[in-house]
Amino acid sequence: MDGVLVIGYGNPGRRDDGLGQLVADEVERAAIPGVGVVTAYQLNVEHAADVAGRRTVVFADAAVAGRAPCFLRRLLPRPAGAFTTHTMRPEAVLALARDSFGWDGEAYLLGVRGYEFNEFGEWLSEQAEENLKVACALIVGALRRGGLGAAATDPPTDDSVSPCYGGGRCTTAST
Questions:
Q1: Alpha-carbon distance 142 to 4, whole Å?
Q2: Which of 67, 99, 131, 138 has its CB surrounded by the most CB atoms within 10 Å?
Q3: Whole-structure pTM value
Q4: What range does the domain containing 132 cover?
Q5: Across the chain, what does the average pLDDT equal?
Q6: What is the distance between the alpha carbons of residues 156 and 117, in angstroms, rounded to a whole number?
Q7: How far is it, in rounded angstroms, from Cα 139 to Cα 86?
């Protein structure tokens, strides 16, 4: 399997929802050898084929709740109960890559805390811009060092909509 793939997803026309794609853009600008980038508005079953050929995958998305400025956690495959054209979680993409293509790599979820999602516009809230800088420094630094596991801020999960710090539910904007 080849190196690392960063999949940044979200809707840049919905303010802070575009954070995932902006992370991917920054990783691409960093031009790290062995690191590829894909951007999308949402995850689809086709992304399982992108994942299949990679040793490591990072899913980057805006987080609508949870700890600021960002979190990075190991993500484990978990099959989806059903697929729709609007919602596919990263752990379901991983399970599909494993079950259909024999993928046996490691994956991470990078959630960047956003605040404004209900307006149309291609700009970030002030705090989301600050969080984006921190998240990009975290992921680019970890990719350059080749140590995503050491950079993880949270324990592994097989549910990208898992409980966060403070006892609430943590969801990402694109789910």
A1: 12
A2: 131
A3: 0.87
A4: 2-157
A5: 85
A6: 27
A7: 27
